[in-house]
Amino acid sequence: MRAMILESQRRPLKSAEIPQPEPGPGQILVKVNACGVCRTDLHIVDGDLKEPKLPLVLGHQIVGTVAGLGPGAEGFEVGDRVGVPWLGWTDGECRYCRSGRENLCDQARFTGYDIDGGYAEYAVADFRYCFPIPEGFSDLQAAPLLCAGLIGYRSLRLAGDAERLGLYGFGASAHIVCQVARHQGRKVFAFTKPGDEEGQAFALELGADWAGGSDQPPPEQLDAAIVFAPVGPLMIEALEVSAKGARIVSAGIHMSDIPSFPYAELWGERSLMSVANLTRQDGREFLELAPKVPVRTEVTEYPLERANEALDDLRSGKLVGAAVLRVA
Ligand SMILES: [Zn+2]
Ligand SMILES: [Zn+2]
Fold it and tell me: Could you tell me the distance, in angstroms and rounded to a whole number, from the CA of residue 144 to the centre of ligand 2?
């Protein structure tokens, strides 16, 4: 099968022909139709995340068709449309798994990091971690729901019932979260790179109440903020424009250092926190909610062979919305 392979970090992916994987016990074989490109993929290529399996097939926002079932795999039939997310396996027995926090599992294995992902014509996945794809979304439009949407949704949940929500970095995830937050009746303030007028216009088009550069003060204080851009100082910038009790949530897996700041900024029961990974419950809830909003994903399509270009465009901030590889 055709695949884009990461042989070593800080090198471009290489186009290769590799053997099609066989579904093992409990696994389904997925014929990949589309695979979303996530900032986490960039952090893996760039070496910010230190321990990927190598060589590796990246990609953890897979939308495909079930093409086979390994022994013991159930819940799907050949021909079903299926989504494969970042959380690929957990042990089910550590203290986190036993307390409904499988996203924090000590032994968790992740798609496109510990397990080969979807930058290829086929992938295998543990059926217990896969989701049916809701109707009303094409394969390309559904792909960004699986991480940008899902982890964005978890971030939004952890932001609490904040009425005035700030989103820092208006990319794949924020453009989905903005729609969900507006659907929930919240006010959304979108912060882009200073001067990114195209990004600001995009945010307003998706229902944001205000959009501006991260150097501009919002018209009201924030009750919560989600920081999607991997830029530590934004955590403090968000804190500085927040109201008492605000939660400032970092949604990314990697971020530059957060500068020190006076305690007075945190005083008033403000908190800084991170969101890690997803639980299957997050996935079920979000994929049920997405068609009701309804979420509209803005997708920039690349053929599989141009995965490096998609990653470069994401790195340089050129993209509007989400990058998705069309595989079939
Ligand atoms: Zn566990
Ligand atoms: Zn992701």
Answer: 9
What residues does 274 pair with on adjacent strands?
250
Residue in the structure block whose two tokens are 């989600």 = 226
CA distance 96 to 265: 32
Looking at all shown ligands, the one closest to residue 173's CA atom is 2
Residue 103 alpha carbon to ligand 1 centre in Å: 8
The per-residue pLDDT for range 161-215, each reduced to its tens digit, is: 999 999 999 999 999 999 999 999 999 999 999 999 999 999 999 999 999 999 9
Cα(147) to centroid(ligand 2), Å: 5
pLDDT in tens, 253-307: 999 999 999 999 999 999 999 999 999 999 999 999 999 999 999 999 999 999 9
| d(C-alpha 282, C-alpha 278), whole Å | 6
CA of 220 to the centre of ligand 2 (A): 31
Report which bound ligand comes closest to the CA of 100.
Answer: 1
Q: Against a cut of 0.90, is the pTM above it? A: yes
* Distance in Å from the first CA to the final CA of the chain: 12
Query: 158-168 burial by CB neighbour count: b if 16+ within 10 A, else e?
Result: ebeebebbbbb
pLDDT, tens digit, for every residue of 200-257? 999 999 999 999 999 999 999 999 999 999 999 999 999 999 999 999 999 999 999 9
Ligand 1 center to residue 197 CA distance, Å? 44
Q: Which ligand lies nearest to the CA atom of residue 110 in the structure?
A: 2
Q: Please tell me the number of the ligand nearest to residue 109's CA.
A: 1
What is the number of the ligand closest to the CA of 102? Answer: 1
Ligand sitting nearest the alpha carbon of 96: 1
Report DSSP state, residue 54. S
Query: Strand ranges (DSSP E) for 155-307?
Result: 164-168, 187-192, 210-213, 222-227, 242-250, 271-274, 299-303
